[in-house]
Amino acid sequence: MFLIFLISLSSEVSANNKDQIINKLKDTLSLNFDFEQNINGKIEFGNCTIQYPKKMFCAYDKENKVIVSNGKSLVIKSSSSYYRYPLDKTPLNFILDKNFLLKKISNLNEEIINKSLVKFVIIENGQSIEIFFDINHHNLIGWQTKDIYQNTAVTLLYSVKSNQAVNEKIFNTPSQN
C-alpha cells in the first residue's frame, strides 16, 4: 500500500511540474535573459530577447556578433561574416515556437536532473532538442541542440525576465555590409 502511495505521489509531482511549466509558458509573451553558449567547447556570452512567436535578438559580448530572427529568417552577423538561413531549417524554429513547445511538452515525459532542472527531449524532423526548465520557478533556462553543421550547442539562460516591454525594431534583420 505504501509503495502505491509513493508511486502516485511521484506521478502527481511530475504532472504538477509539467502543468506549471505549461501554464508559465502559456503566460509568457517575451523573455529577456543573459546567456552562456557552448558550441563544441567555444564559449560565448551575451544577452537575448525572445518574443513569441519566433522572434529573437541576441547580442554577444564580443566580436560585434548578433543573431536576429524576424520569424522567417535567421541572420548571424559579426564584424567579419554574415549568414542568412531560413528559420524553419534550424532548431531555433522549434524553440521559438511557443505553441509547438506547449504541444510537445504536454505529450512528453519529463526528466528531473539534480533536483533542480526539468528536462524534456523533443525529437522532430530527425533533430533532438533538449529543453530545460527551472524546477522551482518553471522558467525556461536552456536548451541543447545540434546546429546545421552538426555541432552540439548548449545554451544556458540566466537572469530570465518574462513579459518585459520589447522594441519591435530589434527584430529587423541586419543587412550585409
In short:
With 177 residues, the protein is of the alpha+beta class. The chain has 3 helices and 11 strands, in the order αββββββααβββββ. Helix 1 packs antiparallel against helix 3.
What features would you highlight for this structure?
single chain; 177 residues; alpha+beta; eleven-stranded antiparallel sheet; globular
Described by strand count, sense and barrel closure, the largest sheet is: 11 strands, antiparallel
Q: What does the overall shape look like?
A: globular
**Cα end-to-end separation:** 70 Å
Structural classification: alpha+beta
The amount of helix comes to 10-25%
Return Rg in Å: 17 Å
Q: What would the average pLDDT be, to the nearest integer?
A: 89
Enumerate the strands of the largest sheet in spatial order, edge to edge or round the barrel: 6-5-4-3-2-1-11-10-9-8-7
Element-level helix/strand string? HEEEEEEHHEEEEE
Strand fraction: 35-45%
Number of helices: 3
Unreliable spans: 1-14
Tally of extended strands?
11
